[in-house]
Amino acid sequence: MIKIITLSVLLILGLNNMTLAQSNTGEYSQESELSSRLSTDLKQFWQQGLFSSFKGVDKTRINYAAFTSDIYQECIVLVTGRSESYLKYQELSFDLHQQGYNIYIIDHRGQGLSERLLKDKEKGYVNNFDDYAHDLKQFIRDIVIKNCTDNSLETNLSKPHLLAHSMGGAIAVRMMQLYPNTVKSAVLTSPMIAVNNGNIPNWLAKTIIYSGDKLDSWFNDQANYFIGQTGFSKTPFAENELSQSTIRYQHFIDVYQQHKEIQLGGVTTHWLREALIANKNIFADLDKLTAPILVMQSGSDTVVSNEAQNSFCQQLHQLNSISCPQGKPFTLEDAFHELMFEQDQYRTPAIRKALQWFKEHSL
Predict the structure, then answer these.
(1) SS3 content of the chain, % helix, strand, coil (to 5)
(2) Which end of the chain is less enclosed by CB atoms within 10 A, N or C?
(3) What angle do CA 201, 1, 19 make, to 5 degrees?
(4) 8 A C-beta contact, residue 270 and residue 213
């Protein structure tokens, strides 16, 4: 899914991007309104949020944001992509909250505002990919379900929905496989089901990654960047592979410049090794996915593998007919990787489809 042989930091899951934004009907925010709304209702909404942390696997500090209301009973957990932070998700959080949902967002270990795992804080690293999933489960169990209807009853009513992007999609899948019956449903946008090897054969890519990680462990105290990966850098809009929305792209670039503590560079060889293991486990444990899952595919995605998403949906639908209707992803043709930060023509139908899925699976 993620490009691994290239000099661009963009190659790994929504690297340097972030954003915000309602439709002509007032349904969702729009690009034309974003500039003015950033200093008005979006700013006011964000100031009312709860920003805190908990201790995840190995007592690593995991930061999160929450936007709740006493009159809302349904919850959505936003599971972000690689290199992202909840600071990117102001506009989306606002739009979803306006539709009657309590919103929770987690910053994964080693990125965003959560605790970094290496001395070089810009290296993308995780010790074990499933650590992400264990953190997410703990987040839902200890924090999220307190505001998802009557959590005194062990029923479906106390479960949240997941809206997971890119690497967050892989994390969400692994969490649902390791901890069945944790959520009501899930929508995966441009999920990182597998690493994209580009034109390199799978066997060669795996050999390079596994051998490189082994050499790292022998000769270095800490993990090194994979070939072509570097520290944080921003990519000009004209060269980006994430969004076709000029204003949304520029906004998340601004967020990273204003909050340098959330900046993250490329991935380490060990992170790639863990991504390969996660891919293997995702397909090995497909039968454990019982919650209804919808996959949203970006038609012009060059960051993750649409082929892997297609295979995932085809196999999952055979095991669970509710998931991946017709055995394939819901595709938005011509859209780039960041569906929820894309132009209105792609973003609005994506949000509508996600909320329709959550509504259908809320009872």
Answers:
(1) 45, 15, 40
(2) C
(3) 155
(4) yes
Structure confidence at residue 300 (pLDDT) = 95
What string of DSSP letters covers 63-101?
A: EEEEE--TT--EEEEEE--TT--GGGBHHHHHHHHHTTE
Residues facing residue 66 across a β-bridge? 50, 104
The confidence score (pLDDT) of residue 26 equals: 55
Closest CA to 81 of 165, 161, 16: 165
Give the integer Cα–Cα distance in Å for 58 and 35: 41
Cα-only R_g, the chain: 19
* Number of other residues whose CB lies within 10 A of the CB of residue 44: 11
Estimate the crossing angle of helix 344-360 against helix 90-98, to 10 degrees. 50
Pick the closest to residue 165 from 341, 327, 283, 11 (CA basis).
Answer: 341
Q: What is the pLDDT of residues 264-302, one digit of tens each?
A: 999 999 999 999 999 999 999 999 999 999 999 999 998
Q: Are 170 and 192 in contact (CB under 8 A)?
A: yes
d(CA 181, CA 269): 33
Beta strands in 288-346 (DSSP E): 293-298, 330-332
User: How far apart, in whole angstroms, are the C-alpha atoms of residue 257 and residue 149?
Assistant: 38
Spatial contact of 104 and 64, defined as CB atoms under 8 Å apart: yes
Write phi, then psi, for 76 (nearest 5 degrees).
-125, 130
pLDDT digits (tens, 9 = 90+) for 90-135: 999 999 999 999 999 999 999 999 999 999 999 999 999 999 999 9
The residue among 173, 179, 187 whose CA lies nearest residue 324 is 187
3-state secondary structure of 165: strand
Q: SS3 of 284, please?
A: helix
Helix (H) or strand (E) holding 186: strand 185-189
Q: Which helix (H) or strand (E) holds 306?
A: helix 306-319
Burial 217-231 (b: 16+ CB within 10 A, else e): eeeeeebbbbeebee
Mean pLDDT of the chain: 90
